[in-house]
Amino acid sequence: MNEQRLRELLGAVEVPDAAAAERRGRAVVEAAFAERLASGAPRRSGPARLPRLAVAVALATLVAALLLSPAGAAVRDWVGEVFDGGGETGLREIPGGGRLLVQSEGGPWVVGPDGSRRLLGGYEETTWSPHGLFLAVVSGRTLTAVEPNGTPRWSLSAPGRVFGPRWSPSGLEIAYRSGSSLRVTGADARGDHRIASRVAAVSPAWSPLSAPQLAYLGADGRLRIAASASGEVLAAAPALPALESIEWSASAAGYGLLLEVGAAALQVRQTVVGKLAGTTVLGPPRRLDLPGATELRDAALSPDGRTVAALVLVEGPRGARSVVRLIDSRDGSFRRLYSLAGDGLTELAWSPDGSRLLVADPRRDQWLFLRRGPYEGRSFDGIAAAFSPGRAPAGFPTVEGWCCRAPGG
């Protein structure tokens, strides 16, 4: 059936500028044949054989057709689906190394580079410390620091239910929402204090630059950057409407880049720590276009701030497709990394070095680990069962973080 479908698609391909391509190919073949005669090479008896160069020209013409024509696009999509249709059974390793933090119905799991898994307990949320030495986990109004093997180090009780903990890049502080307020505590559970009294239900983002600052969304819809020690607002601006998440990454040029992810739009801002201590400049927003997209499913900023991975739903002549695009955060140009028929893909996560992208496919019970080249990568089946041992899977797990390698690794 697949072979028949491929024949149909190839039959529909129209070679771009076919007449000119034929003239160029024939001229090259005739010149090569004349050169062979002039060199005195003996002629072979029997049926005439197509010179190798002619075969190469024919293949090049076919490749051009596949790359440029609409039917060729259909062939590429079909090849991608067949290539990724069946993955390796079980999560045997994490391609590229590092460790995953995965949230399941039963609680968070730490996944080692070799695919080994450890359930931490019945916690509701979790986040890595910057070097993966500890995790901050949540249970009701309690925030706890635990080791990757699940051993608790300390706990504190917050005034209200705890949401969205985020560990600072220095490792010295943890920000979290408690009820409608934003709070910060030391990594040793000392000095817990309130930063803002009324914030939106969006997790804060720590500055990747030298200053201990964090960005958050106020209940009034304004994006704010505040000093973590005092809560003093250092910069503020209207946020992207229907803001769902914030990411903050350092760029190679030395400034910070804020990514605002909305329900249907993306925008970035440059952030610069001013020359005066404790000051920050929040640049104007710049929208990242999503041409042809009907829905934005997820987006993630690469560790170096240069690339935004966006998972969008695109409607086409043959129905909806889930498409992963890589967008240059500097000029907005983009290219398609992966495409799949239907709306099955749900989330994205960058590897610590930015060389790979994890894409979740609950419909096929898979995780895809994609490189930056099209259709290059590996897929693993049976993900839901891997995080529901001894019982029927209650849902597909979510990836909360892809961390650095273990110390000394």
Short description:
The chain is of the alpha+beta class and 409 residues long. The protein contains five helices and 30 strands.
Describe it:
The protein has helices spanning 2-11, 18-38, 52-68, 70-83, 383-386, and strands spanning 88-89, 99-104, 107-111, 117-119, 125-128, 135-139, 142-146, 152-157, 162-167, 173-178, 181-186, 193-196, 205-206, 213-217, 222-227, 233-238, 243-250, 256-262, 266-273, 280-282, 286-288, 293-301, 307-316, 319-328, 334-341, 348-350, 357-361, 366-370, 377-381, 398-403. The chain is built from five helices and 30 strands. Strands 1-29-28-27-26 form a five-stranded mixed beta sheet, with no helix packed on it. The protein has a domain at 1-33 and 52-71. The model is unreliable at 1-21, 31-39, 41-50 and 52-84 (pLDDT under 50).
Spatial order of the strands forming the largest sheet = 1-29-28-27-26
| Largest sheet entry | 5 strands, mixed
Task: Flag low-confidence runs.
Answer: 1-21, 31-39, 41-50, 52-84
Structural class: alpha+beta
If you compute it from the alpha carbons, what radius of gyration comes out, rounded to the nearest whole angstrom?
26 Å
Strand content: 35-45%
Mean pLDDT: 83
* Morphology call: globular
Care to count the β-strands?
30
Total helix count?
5
Helix content class: 10-25%
Say what oligomer this is. Answer: single chain
Distance between the termini: 46 Å
List the main descriptive attributes of the protein structure presented here.
single chain; 5-stranded mixed sheet; 5-stranded antiparallel sheet; alpha+beta; 409 residues; disordered N terminus
